[in-house]
Amino acid sequence: MQSARATTIGILTDEVGNGYSEPILREVSDVAREHGVNLVYFVEWISPEDVTGAARLLTTDLASIDSVDALLVLPLGYSLSAHDLARYCERFQPLPICSIPEITGSFASRVSVDNDPGLRAGIQHLIAVHGCRKIAFVRGPD
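RE: above sequence
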C-alpha cells in the first residue's frame, strides 16, 4: 500500500538571508516541519517588465501544479505594484496562493502585519525607559 504524498508548499521570494525575509522563512520552516509539510523555495527578482511572462524566468517557471500544492508569495521586486504582482501570479493558477505583499484581485489570500502596536511600544519604551523627548521617524518609499 502506497502512502499519500506529503503536502508541498512553494515559496516565491526575491531574496533570502536578509533582515526581512530570514525571520519569516525561519518561522515558515519551523511550522512546516512541525506539520510534515515540504517546502520548495523559488528565488527570483521580478521587474515590472517581466510580469506578463515575456521574459522567461526559469526559477519561478518551475513552480506549478505539478510541483507544489500551494504557493506563499513574499516580495518579488520592490517596484512591483499590487496589480503587477497579481498579473504575474496569474500564471500559477489554479494553485492556492497566499501572499505577504498586497495582490489585487480575488484569487490570493493575504497575510498582513499590523506594525502600529510595535511602533507604539517602541516609542513608549524610548520615552519611559530612556527619557527621550525628540524622536524622529524615518521611512522608505510606500
